Amino acid sequence: MKFQKTLTILILIIVVLAVFAAIIGIFSEGGPGEFEMTSVRGEIVLIYGEGIYKHMSSEVAIQGIAQDWVTLLVAVPLLLLSLSLSRRGSVKARFMLSGTLLYFLLTYLFYLVMAMYNQLFLVYIILLAASFFSFVLSILSYDWNLGKSNFRNQLSVKLIGGFLIFNAILMGGMWLSLIIPSLLNGKYPEALDHYTTLPVQGLDLALFLPLSFLSGLFVIQKKPIGYIGSAIYLVFLSLIMIALLSKILFMIFVNGADGIPAIIIIPVINLVTIILAVYTIKNVKEENR
């Protein structure tokens, strides 16, 4: 694989710093505990008040801790496993590696632009930089003109592409249902809390959901970029959905939030995503490495 040495160094940096950041996020203590504050918009916001996330709203801080657990227990081991196997020449592992790197890229992009400034700020910068450049190097290693030949003919492109398009429309509709009413009635969305904007929704709508839609569309059209893009995106989406499910569970059991209907819908979508990711990776032909 091209850029193997540089990619390995960058990934090891990600592993060390991601483990460090996740442990700090999960176990750090200190602070006044939960308290209320009035935002610049005149709204009462419950602040978490403990550890590294003490200045974040309670709801978002809990979600950050949930994602730290997923990063520590799922994403980091998968990153190391896929790196090890890809260094041995596994084509399947290369797709897993790219998808996992995209997870780290999105995760620390959100941490950098959404988490309130804290002592891990430089760590988030390095993690985002290492994730971005390692992801770029990983996708540059593919022969994009031979995308289709990497997969067995029995791969159902309509199934995969249809799901990715459905995912983009479903998530996009959910975010727009939050944003559009607030724009029409001149009020701020409840999810805004004391933050300046909606980075998760904005970046999803601008970058990651169009990527899902286009990957799905291109694989249905049997374009080489669609085969590679959809395989990478399904691995990435599987990790993101695991993180989303963990956030919902933490909000229910820690914050006492009402998880209906998300606690029913998200596990189903998560399971379908993982099944399709496994199905797609299994249909990668190792002999084309």
Structural overview:
With 289 residues, the chain is mainly alpha-helical. The protein has one domain (4-288). It is built from eight helices and two strands; from the N terminus they run H-E-E-H-H-H-H-H-H-H. 38% of the residues are buried. The mean pLDDT is 93.
Please sum up the structure shown.
By secondary structure, the protein is an all-alpha fold. The chain contains eight helices and two strands, in the order αββααααααα.
Number of helices: 8
Order of helices and strands: HEEHHHHHHH
In angstroms, what is the radius of gyration?
20 Å
Give the strand tally.
Answer: 2
Helix content: 55-70%
- Which structural class fits the helix and strand makeup? mainly alpha
Strand composition percent? under 5%
Largest sheet: 2 strands, antiparallel
Mean pLDDT rating? 93
What is the molecular shape?
globular
Keywords: Membrane, Transmembrane, Transmembrane helix
Question: Which properties best describe this structure?
Answer:
mainly alpha, 8 helices, 69% helix, 3% strand, 289 residues, two-stranded antiparallel ribbon
Secondary-structure topology with pairs:
Elements: H1 4-27, E1 35-38, E2 44-47, H2 58-87, H3 91-114, H4 121-140, H5 157-185, H6 199-220, H7 224-253, H8 262-282
Antiparallel strand pairs: 1-2
Helix pairs in contact: 1-2, 1-4, 2-3, 2-7, 3-4, 3-7, 5-6, 6-7, 7-8
Keywords: Membrane, Transmembrane, Transmembrane helix
Transmembrane segments: 7-27, 60-83, 95-114, 120-140, 160-180, 200-220, 232-254, 260-281
